[in-house]
Each structure stands twice: as C-alpha cells, then as structure tokens.
Amino acid sequence: MKIGIMGGTFNPIHNGHLILADCAYREFKLDKIWFLPNGNPPHKENDEMETNIKQRVDMVKAALTGDERYELCLYEADENHIYYSYATMENFRKKFPQHQFYFIIGADSLFDMEDWKYPERLLPICTILAACRDDIDTKSMRQQMDYLNQKYHGDIRLLKAPVVPAASSEIRRELKSGENAADMVPAAVMNYIQTHHLYEKRINTHG
User: Fold this and answer.
1) What is the pLDDT of residue 35?
2) Engineering a disulfide at 118: which of 69, 86, 163, 171 sits with its beta carbon 3.0 to 4.6 angstroms away?
3) What are phi and psi of 11, to 5 degrees?
4) Out of 119-128, 147-156, 164-173, 198-207, which region has the weakest mean confidence (pLDDT)?
5) Three-state DSSP class for 27?
6) Which residue has the higher pLDDT, 167 or 116?
C-alpha cells in the first residue's frame, strides 16, 4: 500500500491540514494517510504546547471521523519521549516492509531539512512530498529539491496545493482574542475546543 504520513503537533488540527492531505491522496494515488500527532516535538517551544497530547489526539480523531482515507496513528503520541522523523520512518519501514511511505511536509520544511536530525537517514527511505501553493513560482523549491535529492539520494516531489489561509498559531491567536475561527477548523474540532475551553485568554489573578 501507498501510505501518506502527516506528522505535526496539530495544535489544533485545521482545514489546511485536511486539504493538504486530500491533495496528496489524490495527486499521488495514496491508499491511506496516517496522521501522527507528536507528543513532544523537538522543534517546538514549551509555551506553544498549552494543550496536552490527549487533547490534540482527540481533536485529530474528531477531524478524521467518517473519512476512511485517513487513520490516526499514535506512535509519536507520548509527551515523555522526543520523536525524530528519521527514527519514526525507520521503524515504519522495518515494521511494515510491504508499504511504500510518502512523508508530507510544508514548503518551509524543505528549506530547513538539513537542520533536521539525520536527514541522510530519512530521505533515502521514503518519498518526500513538499507542499507548495499552486499560485507561486516553484523555481527555488525545485532547485532545493534537486540539491537534496542529489546529496542525500532522496526522492522529493512537489505537491501542489491551494492557498489556505489557516495556521495553527493564527487560530490560537484569534481564539485567545475572542474572534471566531470556525471557518478554519472542522466543525467537530471547533465543538471540542469550545467544550473544553481551549485556547482561551488566561486571566492573571496574581498581582
């Protein structure tokens, strides 16, 4: 099977994640996409993790309900362990040798990839799908892809996706300021956020 991998903090998961997954599924004819919420991401600051892994897993679960193309994978859902992409993919390759894996990343990650832990171990073992907006010039991305493919014996491909005005950090800011972000996240996720009072502005009672 051809399996797409969507990793991230999903804090919260939003429509942009789902649109990107849909584009990857269709363009590369994937059989499934696994969503991997990361409990302790190596590149995030602690103050960004104001929700715990259970809450983020619950939001991903809510977002994926009813879509048989997508599956929730809890392999990285542990707050007490740091997970690196190369190690996760090595584990998947060993555990599921019958599958072909497609690792989905954003355009920014393509240019940061040499700062990742052991890119020389990640790139040769899976196909990297680098998302780019379908309205921009891809020349610089293609140059970076060629460079990484040659240096690390990788297989990086462009994934064209529509412009989606949504980012988890922006959603958190809007919710903290009391604005409505319902158009950025699935209805089930917004219901969870409101029910559990997530991302609300904290009132300092000391002072």
Assistant:
1) 98
2) 86
3) -125, 65
4) 198-207
5) helix
6) 116
Cβ-proximal residues to 100 (8 Å cutoff; 6+ apart), any chain: 1, 2, 3, 127
Q: Which fold has domain 2-166?
A: Rossmann fold (3.40.50)
Single-letter code of the amino acid located at 56: R
Identity of the residue numbered 158: L
Q: What's the token pair of residue 49?
A: 């993790």
What does 66-134 look like in DSSP terms, one character per residue? T-TTEEE--TT--TTS---HHHHHHHHHHH-TT-EEEEEE-HHHHHHGGGSS-HHHHGGGSEEEEEEET
Contacts 24+ apart (CB under 8 A), 52-58: 52/79, 53/77, 53/78, 53/79, 55/192, 55/196, 55/198, 56/9, 56/10, 56/11, 56/12, 56/13, 58/192
Distance of CA 149 to the CA centre of its chain: 22
Per residue in 132-173, pLDDT tens? 877 677 899 999 999 999 999 999 999 998 877 678 989 999
Q: Is the dihedral of CA 129, 84, 49, 109 positive or negative?
A: negative
- Helical axes 53-64 vs 187-195, angle rounded to 10°: 150
